[in-house]
Specification:
The complex is a heterotrimer of chains A (about 270), B (about 325) and C (about 325).
Chain A (H helix, E strand, L loop, with lengths): L1 H9 L2 H23 L30 H36 L3 H14 L3 H12 L3 H11 L2 H14 L3 H9 L3 H13 L1 H23 L10 H9 L7 H28 L5
Helix pairs in contact in A: 2-3, 2-12, 3-4, 3-6, 3-7, 3-10, 3-11, 3-12, 4-7, 5-6, 7-9, 7-10, 8-9, 10-11, 10-12, 11-12
Chain B lengths: L5 E12 L2 E13 L4 E5 L6 H9 L6 E10 L2 E2 L5 H7 L4 E4 L3 H4 L6 H12 L4 H14 L5 H4 L9 H13 L5 E5 L7 H18 L2 E6 L2 H7 L2 E6 L2 E7 H6 L4 H14 L42 E4 L2 E4 L7
Parallel strand pairs in B: 3-8, 3-9, 6-7, 7-8
Antiparallel strand pairs in B: 1-2, 1-4, 4-5, 9-10, 10-12, 11-12
Helix pairs in contact in B: 4-5
Chain C lengths: L2 H33 L4 H6 L7 H10 L6 H13 L5 E2 L4 E2 H36 L4 H15 L2 H15 L16 H40 L1 H8 L4 H12 L1 H10 L1 H14 L5 H10 L3 H29 L1 H4 L3
Antiparallel strand pairs in C: 1-2
The chains are: A mainly alpha (about 270), B alpha/beta (about 325), C mainly alpha (about 325).
Chain lengths: ~270, ~325, ~325
C-alpha cells in the first residue's frame, strides 16, 4: 500500500518538490545549528554588515549573525508546525471519531463543540490567549493546537459516519466485536486519510499564525523565530534589506512546500477526487 | 440521397485516455431522411451517446472526432467554424437528454431557460418568447403552463421536467431533433405519455429525429428505420418492421430475444452471455465473435464486410436464418 | 407543512443558533478573564494603578467582582448587552468608543480589498477553469499557491521597499497626510495611502479566491446542464457566467462568509505594517500596552461579526439556490 501511495504521489511533481524542499530546509537548519560558532542571540560582528562569505545572510542591528538566526528560526518554525499538527490532529481525530461513531447526547455535544470552534476567529482567540497568559512557545503551541483541531474533527466525523455503515463493519458487529475495538481496528484505519490531508494543511496554518505572532513581537522572547527576525528587520528595512529578505524567503519556501505536499496528499488520499 | 437531412459518413470518435485509445464511435454511417425517425439501438456503452454528441460537436477532451464527415443539409458540420456551428445548435439541430433532472439548470426558472434560446435564435423579445413558451408547454400537455413556467426544476415531477426539456428542444422550430434515451429516466406510465408526445410532435411539426435508446420497445414504437450499434460500430440497419420481424445479425437477434423474454412471461429467458470487448483493445475479426452463438472461423480473422438484402444492410459473415 | 413555513423555521433556527453562539463567545471571554493569572480588575480597567481606590472599588461593584462566580457571569453578560466593555486606561475612554473610532478605516480597507479580490479572483478562476491544463491555467494555479503561501507581513515589506522606498510612488504609513487641503486632494491622498495595504491583502487573498472559484467552476463545467446549455447554442461566455458560474457560487460565498475571521487576521498584520489606523492596529498597540479591556473588546466584537457573517452566509445560500429557499 505504501508503495502504491508513493507511486501515485510521485506523479505530482510539485508535491515531490515540496517534500525535497522540506527535507533540504530541515537539513540546512540542523547542520547550521550544529556547526555554527555563535548562538542566535550572540554578537558575531559589527552591526548591519551585508551578506559576505563569513556571514552569508549578513548581520543585524546588533551585529548578530542572521544566517545562524535563520537556522534557529527555521527549526522553531518547523517544530511549531509539527507540534501543532500532532496536537490538533490527535484532538481532531479523537473528537471527530467519537462524534461520528456514537449516537445520542455524546454525538450531539461533540458536534456542537466542533461547530463552535469552527466559527471562532482563530487568530484573534490566539492573540487574546497569548496576551492574557503571556507569550511563551508552549503557550503558542497550546493555543494553536487547542484551536486548530476543529476542521480535522469535522472531516473525521463525516468519514466515520460513512465508513461505519459499510458491510465489513456491520459484519464485525454481528460477530460480537466490542465497540471500541471496531472503532480502533476497523473504522479508524479506513477513515483517517482525509483527516491526514487536513492535518498537513493545519501545519501550514500554524506556521503562518506563529510567524505572524512573532512578527508582531508576541512570540517567545527567548526563542529565535523567522517571524521575529523579519519583525526586527522591518524597522531597518531601508538601510539593511538583507535582514528581512533572506529569512522571508526561507519562511515562504517552508509554507509553500507544506502547501504543495498537502495538495499532493489531497490528490492521492482524498477519494472524492478520483 | 441528396434530400437527406443528416448524413453521417465514416465517423470515428475516439477518447484518448490514460489507459489507451477508446474507439467509442468507429466508422459509423447513418442517414436521416426528411420527416424520418431513425433509431440507434444498443447496449449502454456502445457509443450511441458519443455519436449524438459528435453530431452536435459537443465533445469535450479527451474525446475527439478523428475522421469522417457529418453532412447536415449537405453542409459538412465538421468543417464549420465554431461560431457557425453554435448558430445551428438549438436552432436547426436540437437535443433532448436522458436525465432531465440533471440537464436542467437547477438555479434558473423554466421560463429563464426556455426564453434564452428563443431570444437568441429567433431574435424575439423576452415577452414574446415567454408567451411562446407557455403555448409550447400547453401543447405538450402541461396544465397551468403560466404557473409552471415560473417554477424551478426541483419543483417539477420527472415527467414534467422531460416535457420542459422537449419544449426547449422544439422551441426554435428545429429541423432535426436528437433524443438521447428520452424516456429512460422516467416511470413506465410516464414513458408511454412522453412517447405519445414525441409521435404527435413528429406528425404535427414534420420533424426529423434520431432516437437513441437501449429500449427496443421505444424504438419499435416510434422509429421508421433503425441502426443497431455494437462496440462503436453499426452492425445492422433496416426498416423497423424488417429488423424486428427477421433480425439478421446474431447480436440483434439476441437483443430481441432477451427483450421479448421480459415482455412475454412464458417465453424462456435468453440473454446474451459475456460482455462487449473493451473498446481499448485492437481486435481482429468481428467484435461480437466472442459472444456469438452463430460464429464461423472467418469471424475471428476478418471484420465482416457489409452484405445487402432487400434494402437492408448487415455486417456479418454468417447472418441468422441463412 | 407549506413551503413558506419551511423557510421561516429554517431562518428561525439559524437566528437562534447565532444568539447561542454569541452567548458561548461571551462565556469564553469571561473564562479567559477569570482563568488568566492576575486580578480580573486588570482585564476590565487595564493598568489599575492609574486609578483612585474609590474608582476601582466602584468598578468592582459595577462588574460584580466581589460576588460569587455565577453572579459575576450574569452581570458580565448584562454589561455586554448594554455595551459596557470596560475602560481603556490608555485612551481614558470607554472601550466601545475607542473601538468604534477605529472601525471605519478597517471597513474601508477590508471592503476595497474584498471587492477587488472577489471580482479579479472570480474572473481568473473562471478563465483558468475554462481552459484546464493550458499554460494560463498552470500560471494561475501556480500564482495561487504562491499567494496562499506568502507571509503577509513579508509581502508588505517587499511592496513598501518596491513602491515606496525605490520608486517613491505611494506612501507606506498611515491613512492621511498632514497639510492636505480640499476634498478632492484629500480623496486622492486617501487613495494613495490605501494603495499599498490594499495591494498586500489583495495579493494574499487573490490566490484563495482564484483557487476556490477554479475548483468549483471545473465541477460546474462538468455538469450536464452545462452540456445542455451548450446544446442550446448559447455563446460560450453566457454558458460560463450564467450557467456555470452561478452554480459554482456556493464555495465562494462560503470562503468569504465563513473565513471572515481569517481575512480580518490578515488585516491586523497589514494595518500594523502600514500603520493604518484601524481596529487591527489598535489590537496590536493595545496588546503592547497591556490595555486588556480593549483586547477583549475587539475579540468579542470580531467574534460577533463572524457569527453575523455566518448567518448572512446561510441567507445568501438560500438566495442563490432556490432549492434551499423552497419558497413559492
Amino acid at each position: 500500500m505504501v508503495r502504491e501511495f508513493w507511486l501515485r504521489f510521485r506523479r505530482n511533481r510539485a508535491a515531490v518538490f515540496g517534500v525535497l524542499t522540506l527535507a533540504a530546509l530541515s537539513l540546512f537548519s540542523l547542520f547550521a545549528i550544529a556547526f555554527s560558532r555563535y548562538g542566535p542571540f550572540e554578537l558575531a560582528a559589527d552591526p548591519f554588515k551585508p551578506p559576505s562569505l563569513q556571514h552569508p545572510f549578513g548581520t543585524d542591528d546588533l551585529g548578530r549573525d542572521i544566517f545562524v538566526q535563520s537556522a534557529y528560526g527555521l527549526a522553531i518554525t518547523l517544530m511549531v508546525g509539527a507540534a501543532t499538527a500532532v496536537l490538533g490532529g490527535l484532538i481532531g481525530i479523537i473528537v471527530g471519531s467519537v462524534s461520528g461513531y456514537f449516537r445520542g447526547a455524546l454525538a450531539n455535544a461533540t458536534t456542537a463543540i466542533i461547530e463552535i470552534f469552527q466559527s471562532l476567529p482563530l487568530f484573534f482567540l490566539v492573540l487574546v490567549i497569548i496576551s492574557f497568559f503571556g507569550s511563551s512557545i508552549t503557550n503558542t503551541i497550546l493555543a494553536l493546537g487547542l484551536t486548530l483541531w476543529a476542521s480535522t474533527a469535522r472531516i473525521q466525523r463525516g468519514q466515520v459516519m460513512t465508513v461505519k455503515n459499510l458491510t465489513f463493519v456491520e459484519m464485525s458487529k454481528l460477530v460480537g466485536e466490542k465497540e471500541y475495538n471496531i472503532l480502533i481496528r476497523e473504522i479508524l484505519p479506513n477513515s483517517v486519510q482525509p483527516s491526514i490531508v487536513n492535518i498537513a494543511y493545519t501545519a501550514s496554518i500554524a506556521i503562518v499564525v506563529e510567524s505572524g505572532l512573532a512578527f508582531l513581537g508576541l512570540g517567545d522572547p527567548r526563542m529565535m523565530s523567522l517571524g521575529f527576525i523579519i519583525g526586527n528587520a522591518r524597522l531597518f528595512f531601508f538601510q539593511a534589506w538583507w535582514m528581512g529578505l533572506l529569512p522571508g524567503i526561507l519562511l515562504f519556501l517552508t509554507i509553500l512546500s507544506l502547501n504543495l505536499v498537502s495538495d499532493g496528499l489531497n490528490e492521492v488520499l482524498n477519494p472524492r477526487r478520483s | 440521397m441528396n434530400d437527406a437531412v443528416l448524413r453521417v459518413e465514416g465517423l470515428s470518435t475516439y477518447y484518448y485516455t490514460d489507459k489507451g485509445v477508446v474507439r467509442a464511435v468507429d466508422g459509423v454511417d447513418l442517414v436521416v431522411g426528411e420527416n424520418e425517425v431513425v433509431g440507434v439501438v444498443g447496449e449502454s456503452g456502445c457509443g450511441k451517446s458519443t455519436l449524438a454528441a459528435s453530431v452536435m460537436r459537443l465533445l469535450q477532451p479527451p474525446a475527439k472526432i478523428v475522421k469522417g464527415s457529418i453532412f447536415f443539409r449537405n453542409v459538412n458540420l465538421l468543417e464549420l467554424p465554431e461560431e457557425e456551428m453554435r448558430k445551428i445548435r438549438g436552432k436547426k439541430i436540437s437535443m433532448i437528454f436522458q436525465n432531465p433532472a440533471s440537464y436542467l439548470n437547477p438555479l434558473l426558472t423554466v421560463e429563464e431557460q426556455m426564453v434564452e434560446s428563443m431570444t437568441l435564435h429567433l431574435r424575439i423579445s423576452k415577452q414574446e418568447a415567454a408567451s411562446r413558451a407557455v403555448n409550447i408547454l400547453e401543447k405538450l400537455g402541461i396544465s397551468a403552463p403560466d404557473t409552471v413556467i415560473k417554477y424551478y426544476p426541483h419543483q417539477l415531477s420527472g415527467g414534467m421536467k422531460q416535457r420542459v426539456m422537449i419544449g426547449m428542444a422544439i422551441s426554435c422550430n428545429p429541423e432535426l431533433v436528437l433524443a438521447d434515451e428520452p424516456t429512460t429516466a422516467l416511470d413506465p406510465t410516464i414513458q408511454v405519455q412522453i412517447l405519445e408526445q414525441l409521435l404527435e410532435l413528429r406528425k404535427n411539426l414534420g420533424l426529423s429525429m434520431v432516437v437513441i435508446t437501449h429500449d427496443l420497445g421505444v424504438a419499435k414504437a416510434i422509429c421508421d428505420k433503425i441502426y443497431v450499434m455494437y462496440a462503436g460500430k453499426i452492425v445492422e440497419e433496416g426498416k423497423v418492421g424488417d429488423v424486428f420481424n427477421r433480425p439478421l445479425h446474431p447480436y440483434t437477434y439476441g437483443l430481441l430475444e432477451s427483450a421479448l423474454s421480459v415482455y412475454e412471461k412464458d417465453r424462456p429467458a435468453k440473454f446474451i452471455d459475456g460482455a462487449p470487448p473493451k473498446l481499448v483493445e485492437e481486435i481482429k475479426g468481428c467484435y461480437f465473435a466472442n459472444r456469438c452463438f452463430n460464429k464461423v472461423d472467418r469471424c475471428l480473422i476478418e471484420y465482416p464486410h457489409p452484405s445487402f438484402k432487400n434494402g437492408r444492410k448487415v455486417y456479418c459473415w454468417n447472418p441468422v436464418g441463412d | 407543512m407549506s413551503a413558506e413555513y419551511d423557510f421561516k423555521s429554517f431562518l428561525l433556527i439559524k437566528v437562534v443558533r447565532s444568539f447561542v453562539m454569541v452567548f458561548i463567545i461571551l462565556t469564553i471571554g469571561f473564562l479567559l478573564i477569570h482563568l488568566a493569572p492576575g486580578d480580573p480588575i486588570e482585564f476590565i480597567l487595564g493598568g489599575a494603578g492609574f486609578y483612585t481606590p474609590e474608582f476601582i472599588a466602584s468598578v468592582r461593584e459595577r462588574f460584580g467582582l466581589d460576588k460569587p462566580i455565577h453572579e459575576k457571569f450574569v452581570i458580565y453578560v448584562l454589561n455586554f448587552l448594554r455595551g459596557e466593555l470596560g475602560y481603556s486606561y490608555v485612551f481614558g475612554l470607554p472601550v466601545v468608543e475607542v473601538i468604534a473610532a477605529r472601525v471605519p478605516p478597517t471597513l474601508l480597507l477590508m471592503g476595497t480589498q474584498l471587492v477587488l479580490v472577489i471580482v479579479v479572483g472570480s474572473l481568473l478562476g473562471i478563465l483558468a477553469a475554462s481552459r484546464p491544463h493550458s499554460k494560463l491555467d498552470y500560471l494561475v494555479s501556480s500564482l495561487s499557491v504562491a499567494g496562499i503561501s506568502m507571509p503577509i507581513f513579508w509581502l508588505g515589506l517587499l511592496l513598501i521597499f518596491l513602491f515606496s522606498v525605490s520608486l517613491g510612488l505611494f506612501p507606506a504609513q498611515g491613512m492621511t497626510s498632514l497639510r492636505v487641503t480640499g476634498w478632492w486632494e484629500g480623496f486622492l491622498d486617501l487613495l494613495s495611502h490605501l494603495f499599498l495595504p490594499t495591494l498586500t491583502l489583495f495579493l494574499i487573498n487573490l490566490g484563495l479566491v482564484t483557487r476556490t472559484v477554479r475548483t468549483s467552476m471545473l465541477e460546474a463545467l462538468r455538469s450536464e446542464f452545462v452540456v445542455a446549455a451548450r446544446a442550446k447554442g448559447l455563446p460560450e461566455r453566457r454558458v460560463l457566467f450564467r450557467h456555470a458560474f452561478r452554480n459554482s457560487l456556493t464555495p465562494l460565498i462560503t470562503l468569504i462568509g465563513l473565513q471572515l475571521g481569517w481575512l480580518l487576521s490578515g488585516a491586523v498584520i497589514v494595518e500594523t505594517v502600514f500603520a493604518w489606523p484601524g481596529m487591527g492596529r489598535l489590537l496590536f498597540t493595545s496588546i503592547g500596552s497591556r490595555d486588556y479591556p480593549v483586547v477583549m473588546g475587539i475579540f468579542l466584537l470580531v467574534s460577533t461579526a463572524v457569527v453575523v457573517s455566518n448567518l448572512i452566509t446561510e441567507l445568501l445560500y438560500a438566495y442563490v439556490d432556490p432549492r434551499i429557499r423552497r419558497a413559492k
